[in-house]
Amino acid sequence: MPDDIGMPSVAPTIDMENWVCPMPLRDSPNIVMGHGGGGAMSGELIEHLFLPAFGAAAEADMGDSAVITLGGARLAFSTDSFVVKPLVFPGGSIGDLAVNGTVNDLAMSGARPMVLSTAFILEEGTALADIAHIAKALGTAALAAGVKLVTGDTKVVDSGHGDGIFINTAGIGVVDDGVDIRPQRAAPGDVVIVSGDIGVHGVAVMSCREGLEFGTTVVSDTAALNGLVAVMLATGADVHVLRDPTRGGVAATLNEIAGVAKVGVSLDERKLPVPAEVRDACGLLGLDPMYVANEGKLVAFVAPQDADRVLAAMRDHPLGARAEAIGCCVAEHPGMVVARTALGGTRVVALPAGEQLPRIC
Q1: pTM, full prediction
Q2: Which has more pLDDT, 17 or 163?
Q3: Which architecture characterizes domain 65-175 according to CATH?
Q4: Roughly what angle, to the nearest 10 degrees, separates helices 226-234 and 307-315?
Q5: What is the rounded distance in angstroms from the CA atom of residue 31 to the CA atom of residue 16?
Q6: Average pLDDT of 222-232?
Q7: Whole-angstrom distance, CA of residue 254 vs CA of residue 294
Q8: Nearest to 123 by CA among 180, 76, 85, 179
Q9: Could you give the count of Cα atoms lying within 13 Å of 119 in the half-sphere of its Cβ?
Q10: Strands, E, within 228-361: which ranges?
Q11: What is the CATH number of domain 183-348?
């Protein structure tokens, strides 16, 4: 018998033997935390389950944001969900992230973010004061980013079936004529630039969990990057790719770009801006800073003749003061990221299977 929304009352059985690609989702018939980490398992979930299920309704290159043309206008559209634990952490909260994350996804398409929707999923029993604190942080972040909150939704789930507050935001931005920023444009010779210290957000969130203390307070880098992107584009430089290295960190982002563009990436580890407190915390936890999430940083692939100009403009902006050129795009080893170590050797920076630090964005 169908239910009241026309869907069958018994869920269809998924045939694990007939994926589009014969490789299963890391041999697990059920969702595990790694599927939400932005690494290889997330990619497999999309490629082998969601895209075949969506069929012809889906665009083949679904990404963090899409540029579409409607009525002659070029618009960027993005959506993101936030399941952070804890809800408040040094330097921010789930409310800040819900705005900044979607604003940044739009900005990475070269768009000027304009409007956001916001949807709250609230767990029964959550204190109204906590919800108000998060909502105020969200509104403050929207004002700082220069975007309007124009529509939204609220749902409540039973006690024990949520985690206080989950938030979804979707956003629309305007892409100006002549702007063409996408992973497919990465080309040999491009200079790879990161806008500042990496790994800060992930360590800030982890410092709040399980009573961990690292001897100093690490503050999240959560920030809206649309202003920094505007400064970069105002130079007139040929910016090929922009990405914010959130889940999976810089390593996952560079691997994704290399894979899509079928190019190699060569890094110099000595040039990676890793603050001492992040390096120490990662050493204590056995983590690699390149795989730790960021929420206020971007990675750019810039044509070589324009790299110095872009780097100078970034360093004149508060959110790019510690920007560094960390490597280049090469024709060798397509789809692979290779780093030169401080000892003069090289290592492959592989795509992570999942997330080293779950529930951080």
Answers
A1: 0.86
A2: 163
A3: 2-Layer Sandwich (3.30)
A4: 140
A5: 13
A6: 98
A7: 14
A8: 85
A9: 11
A10: 239-243, 264-268, 299-302, 324-330, 337-340, 346-348
A11: 3.90.650.10
Task: List, for residues 128-158, the tens digit of each pLDDT value.
Answer: 999 999 999 999 999 999 999 999 999 999 9
Instruction: Indicate the domain borders of the chain.
Output: 1-62, 65-175, 183-348
* Rounded Cα gap, residues 5 and 149, in angstroms: 29
Convert the pLDDT of each residue in 243-301 to its tens digit: 999 989 999 999 999 999 999 999 999 999 999 999 998 988 888 999 999 999 999 99
pLDDT confidence bin for 3, thresholds 50/70/90: very low
Least confident of 15-19, 132-136, 213-217, 307-311: 15-19
Exposed/middle/buried for residue 73 (C-beta within 10 Å: 0-12, 13-18, 19+)? exposed
Environment class of 331 (CB within 10 Å of its CB; exposed 0-12, middle 13-18, buried 19+): exposed
Q: How confident is the model at residue 216 (pLDDT cuts 50, 70, 90)?
A: confident
The answer to whether 334 and 290 are in contact (CB under 8 A) is: no
CB atoms within 10 A of CB 105: 28
Kindly give the interhelix angle for 226-234 and 94-107, rounded to the nearest 10 degrees.
20
| N-terminal to C-terminal alpha carbon distance within the chain | 39
Listing DSSP states for 66-125 in one string gives: EEEEETTEEEEEEEEEE--SSSEETTEEHHHHHHHHHHHHHHTTTEEEEEEEEEEEEETT
Report DSSP letters for 264-300, one per residue.
EEEEEGGGS---HHHHHHHHHHT--GGGS--SS--EE
Is the CB of residue 155 less than 8 Å from the CB of residue 122? yes
Share in percent of the chain as helix, strand, coil (round to 5): 30, 25, 45
